[in-house]
Amino acid sequence: KPHLDFLMYKVCFPTICLTADDVELFINDPHEFVHKQNSPLADFYDPSMSAITLLTDLVRHRGRDVTQQLLAFLTDCVNRYAAATDESQKNHIEKDGALHAFGALAEYLLNMKKYASHLEGLLVTSVFPDFNSPIGFLRCRACWMVQKFSTVKWSDDGTNLRTLIQLVLQR
């Protein structure tokens, strides 16, 4: 228990984040980047997938100890990104890592009423803007997030869903 913070935030989270090689691959060969990210064999050789598996297992089996704190950390990452006024202050890789972790926890979050009610807000404030991001891998992550949270319950009159459809179709 005393080592969970170190394990989650100093080991797992940095491992989940894209590396400089990943960013370079996205820029030079986006098709290969997407293939690598979605490869079923990645579970066996990609340290990022091992870190994701560890985080999801911790949330499933030690939920009371880690879930609230982990979600607060991830939310802080995306909020820092949104609050940055200068483009040079925005940590694109950290935001992508936070969204990757949120997406990996999608099944758990969607099944817990306590968290499910906040997912629409996460999508609207942190994912929708990325469809128009100049950063390609954030646009890619936005599409992935929409797929992961495709069963979210929309609370409004359909405005957010229509906005999402327009964002997806304009690309």
Distance between the termini: 45 Å
Range of strand content: under 5%
Structural class given helices, strands, pairing? mainly alpha
Largest sheet: none
Task: Write up what this structure looks like.
With 171 residues, the protein is mostly helical. The chain has one domain (4-169). It has helices at residues 4-16, 20-28, 30-37, 42-45, 47-61, 63-83, 92-104, 106-111, 113-127, 136-148, 159-169. Helix 6 (63-83) runs antiparallel to helix 7. The protein is globular. The model has no long low-confidence stretch (mean pLDDT 92).
In short:
By secondary structure, the protein is an all-alpha fold. The protein has helices at 4-16, 20-28, 30-37, 42-45, 47-61, 63-83, 92-104, 106-111, 113-127, 136-148, 159-169.
